[in-house]
Amino acid sequence: MDKTEINALLNELGLEAENSGAFDGTWLDTQGEWLESTNPTTGEVIAKVRQATAEDYEKVAAQSVEAFRAWREWPAPKRGEIVRQIGDALREYKDPLGQLVTLEMGKIYSEGLGEVQEMIDMADLAVGMSRQLFGKTMHSERFQHRMYEQWHPLGPVGIITAFNFPVAVWAWNACVAAVCGDSMIWKPSEVTPLTAIATTKIAQAVLEENDAPPIFGLAIGGRDIGEVMTADSRLPLISATGSVRMGRAVGQVVAGRMARSLLELGGNNGLIVMDDADLDLAFGGILFGSVGTAGQRCTTTRRLFLHKDIAAGVIERLVKSYPTIRIGDPMDDNTLMGPVIHEKAIEDMMAAIETAKEQGGEVLVGGNRIDRPGYFVEPTIVKVPGQIPITCDETFAPILYVMEFEDLDEVIELHNAVPQGLSSSIFTNSMRTAERFLSHAGSDCGIANVNIGTSGAEIGGAFGGEKETGGGREAGSDSWKAYMRRQTNTLNWSTELPLAQGVEFDL
Ligand code: UN1
Asked: I want to staple 123 with a disulfide (CB 3.0 to 4.6 A). Which of 87, 152, 327, 412 is the partner?
């Protein structure tokens, strides 16, 4: 995209060369430090954003409390109707918003569009949820008593998102929180502020058309804003996506004030190929899982386990294919892999490759930075002698560690022997093997797949993982419960006051 095209795109999405990074129903005249949003494809600045200060945050939070009080009075299906309209607005803006995701984050345009589609799907799902926030009814042990539970709106929710899904993860949280009756404050990644501002504008326009309170607050800033938000006792839930280090800090502070956190942290996802697998299917799954999004999904395939009888063939095919992956401008339809997010991502990737070599790994293909403007690297395969310390870490880059195994027991053990537990997959045509992998004695991850890869989950299922991945669940299934508070009600319509458990307490 040239300068004129970029300016036209910014204009279409209501962005300017200089933008405010704090929104409480109006765009605040922020006085924080300037942030430059950079295009990872060229290294050039796209536009500037002024970060929220602690004072700006205070305004956003105070307004969020107000908005919550008004919003929780709206019946849930009416809240769902607003989210339905947000889904429609996102359909209208799918192309430009998808382009902005590609411009600012660097994923290929088809994935940029896919990301906005994920937001639309999330809105549709949440509309349905708005009529299904079910509580249970129980039978009371007492005569002429009724007992049931209901789910109430929780309060203003803090949402911290990462650069790699700069808008979809907001939608996972925001669509559900909105139908649940919550207001929210969003702290996006500092490297993708423009997509956050554009999204907030799209959602706010829908609220205004419907005279709804400004439930979608925004506070763009660094760790300082994250810390103020995490410690803010007005926010009963902090939903945070990002590194284990960040999540540990957030989780401890939030636990300290007895609030709730929903953490979706690092993954170190393994893909197992058995000797009876359909190797063409497996190849497709490995390729998208390891190279897609330039290795920057939390569900990216990072560890590949190959049965010894098929290992040589699969490795040969991968090593031949990797150099043919079309790397370049993510806006070009032909490109399969765009840049990584910034210089530091390249440094981290190169450091991980060096460490892997020191620990016995052998680079089979790739391993280098590509000499061109922007932040481009070669997707890399490293053969490792088994689990070595570096394969227990998540490096947010397209490095695939490959190891061989002999039998299922061994590989399940190996697969689970890392601190993270997000996504996992096995390729096999054996029903027994598949079921074992999905059983309690199989994968220990929050997501376990058969004959599809580790990445690209649909929004209908609850998304998240175990161990250091943080234990949170977002998006589908009953994840909405995290955004509401449960109340158990017992109602006596008799003329007596019997006590539970048959206790007698008469004068
Ligand atoms: C993430 O990388 O934080 O399953 C989310 C997937 C996507 C979401 C990834 N639907 O790969």
From this structure: 87
264 an active-site residue?
A: yes
pTM above 0.85, yes or no: yes
**Residues 420, 264 contacting (CB under 8 angstroms):** no
- The whole-angstrom separation of Cα 457 and Cα 476 is 11
CB under 8 A, 24+ apart: contacts of 231-234: 231/257, 232/61, 232/158, 233/257, 233/259, 234/61, 234/64, 234/65, 234/155, 234/156
298 a catalytic residue: yes
- The reply to whether 334 and 202 lie within a common domain is no
Give the model's pLDDT for residue 9.
98
For residue 190, being part of any structural domain is answered with yes
For 137-165, what is the mean pLDDT?
98
Q: How many A from CA of 455 to the centre of ligand 1?
A: 6
Find the mean pLDDT for residues 9-24.
98
Q: Is residue 506 part of a domain?
A: no
Q: Separation of 213 CA from ligand 1 center, angstroms? A: 30
* Mean pLDDT for the stretch of residues 206-234: 97
Q: Give CA torsion, residues 26, 102, 331, 379, to 10 deg.
A: 170
Q: What's the pLDDT band for 283 if we cut at 50, 70, 90?
A: very high
